[in-house]
Amino acid sequence: MKYRNFKVVPQVIFGRGCFNQLDEILSQKRKNGFIVFLVDDVFMNHAFRHRIPRHSEDMLLWINVTDEPKTRYVDSLVGQVRQFSPSLPEGVIGIGGGSVMDLAKAVALMLTNAGSAADYQGWDLIKNPAVYHVGIPTLSGTGAEVSRTTVLTGPEKKLGINSDYTVFDQIVLDPELIADAPADQRFYTGMDCYIHCVESLRGTYLNTFSQSYGEKAMALCQDVFLNPGADSDDKLMIASYFGGMSIAYSQVGVCHALSYGLSFVLGLHHGIGNSVAFDYLEEFYPDGVKEFRQMMARQGISLPRNLMAGMEDHRMEKMIDVALVLEPLWENALGKNWKTVMNRERIRQLYLRM
Amino acid sequence: MKYRNFKVVPQVIFGRGCFNQLDEILSQKRKNGFIVFLVDDVFMNHAFRHRIPRHSEDMLLWINVTDEPKTRYVDSLVGQVRQFSPSLPEGVIGIGGGSVMDLAKAVALMLTNAGSAADYQGWDLIKNPAVYHVGIPTLSGTGAEVSRTTVLTGPEKKLGINSDYTVFDQIVLDPELIADAPADQRFYTGMDCYIHCVESLRGTYLNTFSQSYGEKAMALCQDVFLNPGADSDDKLMIASYFGGMSIAYSQVGVCHALSYGLSFVLGLHHGIGNSVAFDYLEEFYPDGVKEFRQMMARQGISLPRNLMAGMEDHRMEKMIDVALVLEPLWENALGKNWKTVMNRERIRQLYLRM
């Protein structure tokens, strides 16, 4: 058996108000160049924008995440940075949810690797180390702050740029930054972590490293969404970090596979796609789905329904294609012989419930 | 409030048998130089020695850990490496318990920093990055595999070389390597982790990052020592890793302070010193001490007793000095006003019980 030599984010700062230390952290990387900040445009008219430690020589890019990150958006951002200066930036800083962090990772990679981001969707296709890059979540649950992927929708597929170079060099985990997220967005993003734990802990790929992280992440999610308290933001932020770490030797399952199809064809955001799919997966994850519904009730969340109304056949087929190609997810969920129990028709029936 | 920007070991491999991947991992660092292996001399006549991926150009140093690591031992090892070759090694690999790992960290640091290891006992005194260094535990519990210190006994004091450069570049966590440790050593080293969790979780320095790691480490220790099973080695190894990570934003307490004195004056190993001291600290840690005694009973461990018999006054005074100087530990345990409740006489009385 061969194990993954897991790349871990090498610098972590955690604590309420630690965002105030960002300028000092970046000052150690500054020489005579500039830094690029990618910031969720939700902060464009928010007092938080004035706390971003942008120097006069720096570049600030407001990022729109109405759509899930696309390879052509990455290419366009990289073009803007190259137009801004002929030299490489000294850092790329992503401030936002999973989409903004993924875009920051992708921009940092594509500044030092030729071609389009779409050329690198896959595993270990990146040739050169990225520009120094920092992740600062303002929504927690995706685990994007620790993962070795940046999930992108390309012309052909939704698939990450997976490489050790993708991993952030530094993350800044300040629970105060997630305090103002809208309740539904906070819930759906948190459920990305919770569902991921359910899938990995019930999966066939798992060892004690990932199990320990997954169990604690799950317990923290249970606290946050069933017994909220004054430290819920702190706990949600650590749940996301632990959930991301647990991916080292585990894999997600049925829900994430179906959710990828929903995102690709319907443009659903990852968190909401997971929640929509998970609610119909009692046969695979009975305890998890039961608890998920308790969390929804406790948090007053209503899922969108009837998403398949008027769905054309070719789009349904594409959705099934996108889900089916994720073989490791199916194998983790259903074992080596998963093809004997899962097929296009069964996936179609699952989608038709949604 | 200012938070520590915590340096994390950037590459982790975990799994039964993953030690077999060491040669492949090192091959990525090899150019035309050599690698130094520091290996616990308990393996000198053990089949395991043949599994060490030593190439003909490499250097192997058998390490004796009868005594706790001393600065002059570090200096002597560094001298041997310099005598072996005028050029720096491409890696320093420590294979053993906490003492061997600490020595490997110290040698990697002192190869690139002039003078004696004793000159760098303290915080952030190291000037230059270390040689690439890898930690491979064969005993679990100290957290030395993840810590930013290497605890050394110098001519004047027992104090670590604390710096971000101290942290390993890679750790190899193979639970099979800890399977053959003697039961008492395994217990005392495991108790280093357990006691550390008790102290940090009850301390006044703590946040959710450290609490989450500490709680899970403690739960894993409880499993290992009260309800052992087939995966106990895996769990103990992760408990140690989590315990080490929890130190980021926490601190140890009364037990570790007293244990440092025991080590300095009596030469007690750290794990056994902790256990000896902890057994008399019911007034500070009532639940922890109770559970610790259950673990001792379950594991059939008898502590050494009457350690103070015939203790000369000047040695007792020195022991109190060593314990008292550890101000952050006392403050963590007893609060900002700890000096109103702890003094030389009370420490003497605590030592006299042992």
Q: SS-based structural class of chain A?
A: alpha/beta
Estimate the helix proportion of chain A, in percent.
40-55%
| Integer average pLDDT of chain A | 96
Computed Rg of chain A: 20 Å
Q: Order of SSEs of chain A, N→C?
A: EEHEEHEHEEEEEHHHHHHHHH
Strand order of the largest sheet of chain A: 2-10-7-5-3-4
The multimeric state of the shown protein is homodimer
Q: What is the largest interface, and how many residues per chain?
A: A-B, 39 and 39 residues
Number of extended strands of chain A = 10
State the distance separating the first and last CA atoms of chain A: 39 Å
Fraction in beta strands of chain A: 5-15%
Please summarize what this structure is.
2 copies of one chain form a homodimer. Chain A is an alpha/beta fold and 354 residues long.
Keywords:
homodimer; 354 residues; alpha/beta; six-stranded parallel beta sheet; three-stranded mixed beta sheet; 12 helices; 43% helix; globular
Topology summary:
The structure is a homodimer of 354-residue chains.
Chain A: E1 6-7, E2 11-14, H1 22-27, E3 35-40, E4 59-63, H2 71-84, E5 91-96, H3 98-110, E6 122-123, E7 133-137, E8 151-153, E9 158-162, E10 170-173, H4 183-201, H5 208-226, H6 232-246, H7 254-266, H8 270-278, H9 286-299, H10 313-324, H11 327-334, H12 344-353
Parallel strand pairs in A: 2-10, 3-4, 3-5, 5-7, 6-9, 7-10
Antiparallel strand pairs in A: 8-9
Helix pairs in contact in A: 2-3, 4-5, 4-6, 4-8, 4-9, 5-6, 7-8, 7-10, 10-12
Structure description:
- The structure is a homodimer of 354-residue chains.
- The first copy, chain A, has 354 residues and is an alpha/beta fold.
- In chain A, the strands form two sheets. Chain A has a six-stranded parallel beta sheet, with helices on one face. Chain A has a three-stranded mixed beta sheet with strand order 6-9-8.
- The longest helix of chain A has 19 residues.
- The mean pLDDT of chain A is 96.
- At the A-B interface, strand 1, strand 2, helix 5 and helix 6 of A face strand 1, strand 2, helix 5 and helix 6 of B.
- Strand 1 of chain A pairs antiparallel with strand 2 of chain B, so a sheet runs across the interface.
